[in-house]
Amino acid sequence: MCGIVGYTGSRQALPLVLEGLRRLEYRGYDSAGIAVLDGAGGLKIAKKAGVLANLDGHLGSGSLALAGRAGIGHTRWATHGGPTDRNAHPHTGGSGKVAVVHNGIIENFAALRADLESAGTRMRSDTDTEVVAHLLAAAYRDGPTAGDLPACMAAVCRKLEGAFTLVAAHADVPSVLVAARRNSPLVVGVGEGEMFVASDVSAFIAHTRDAIELGQDQLVVITPDSAEITSFAAAEPDFKRFRVDWDVAAAEKGGFSTFMEKEIFEQPVAVERTLLGHFDGSGVVLDEQRLGVRELRTVDKVYVVACGTAYHSGLVAKYAIEHWTRLPVEVELASEFRYRDPVLGRDTLVVAISQSGETADTLEAVRYARRQRARVLAVCNTNGSQIPRESDAVLYTRAGPEVGVAATKTFLAQVTANYLVGLALAQARGTKSRGEVAWEYAALSRMPEAVAATLTVMGPVRDLARELAHSPAVLFLGRHVGYPVALEGALKLKELAYMHAEGFAAGELKHGPIALIENGLPVVVTMPSPKSRPILHSKMLSNIREIQARGARTIVVAEEFDDTVAPFADYLIELPRVPALFQPLVAAIPMQIIAAEIARSRGYDIDKPRNLAKSVTVE
Ligand code: F6R
Question: Does 376 lie in the same domain as 227?
Fold first, then answer.
């Protein structure tokens, strides 16, 4: 997690690095720090625990002291060592001439640290990163490649185990930055007479859209006019040049007070763009689909692996894929998948869903699946990230950058992409005729409209949410595709409002959780459609009666014109009527609004919930 950025060019580095950090702050906000090379053999550092604003405040009018045309910066999600000033990056080595920022975990740091300490090095922090700074300083001072920063960095990287993106600056080479990566992301931004390195393109998108994404075990040396990529392991460098297809406006708040709010309102477009170009008049087509129709036809089992919100989108996929293809689908938490010996083979399709494309648990699940010879299809929002790179095929969700830490528009985009996977499989296997696939796709194409219509009726839901802000807990119930919606509603509330929340399959309530119901407890119930799911609908009405009889305050999310439900709803939220399988695309929206609004009423920062980071690159 952690965000890192580096700049070298003709402009002052400090404001550009700080701007980059502001855009990367979603990756972690336990501390922030910056190092600037002053061009005269000096290296100046400022760092502060807490959010980036603390560093800004700390710099205050003293920012002139950090003048220089090359610099590196870091925004931290703490792993080794608490979120303190002393553990904030950059870390320095040797006599303070070399500074390093790091994203990831150096797994063998304890042994390396012990070696350094027994050789007399005094550690100044509790981090794994500081070890790298000392190793680099020592190699530069008197190793076999002394005085050659890239060669020293390569030698140090070869000693490291785990996941890392590193950027190093040395006072002796003031316009040069050296960066390296393994299992963590790193992109280069190629400007006019200036270069950037960063964890993701949003850090430099205001200055250049030309980028290079580094492959595994690669190292880049940037100067204002060049970016030279080599490999620090045996492999050939395999980098990828690309042009970012969104602009700085997409990474700004665009008039909304928070990124999350803006992203909630971008959902109709996220769904529309995810569908775009995936139907060619005769059938569903998937991009970068390196799995042919023949391979899809032989699939005999589908596993979906993902974490958190992406996992919930996978639960929705199960209902659609099983219904359309008659294939068995298992949905697994990526963190559990490879530890329980799942039965996989050449004809197993593993669908790995990840917004960031860098979630360590999902990445390891992908690697495990490929080792077992299964075929892996990634559903991902981040172009060229590690999970799609290591998969057999990829279907990109085109939701655009999501900065709010809680996933919103990417959830809807994932659900949409999963439907496309289901339809492509059904088409290849012939379980749905071309006409049926075309019909489903047409219905899906109308969903952006339904999502937009849902957003227009959320005003009263906000008022309701403010009333719920003082409840001790909220429960969420659903059946069928409403069950993952309930889980997602509870997750959003936990992560944003720090409130106890649970999602249940409504039928399961009577097997235990109903004991939780007490007078006034809010329970949010997603109703199945009375027309297309009449049996489930009537069972759900019974469930509502059961909880109402025990004092629950029922908040019912139902399809418009569902007259049967009103008598049982203490509060009714009406949604546009949509095909039953597609209901999560509209029903998730009130869940997002309720969580965001309760969190706001409780005075929390909804873009940066405590203890969380956007990309979870540790297992
Ligand atoms: C919740 C949330 C997380 C992510 C999870 C997976 O709002 O954002 O639960 O969904 O960490 O992340 P990705 O999709 O990047 O693999």
Answer: no
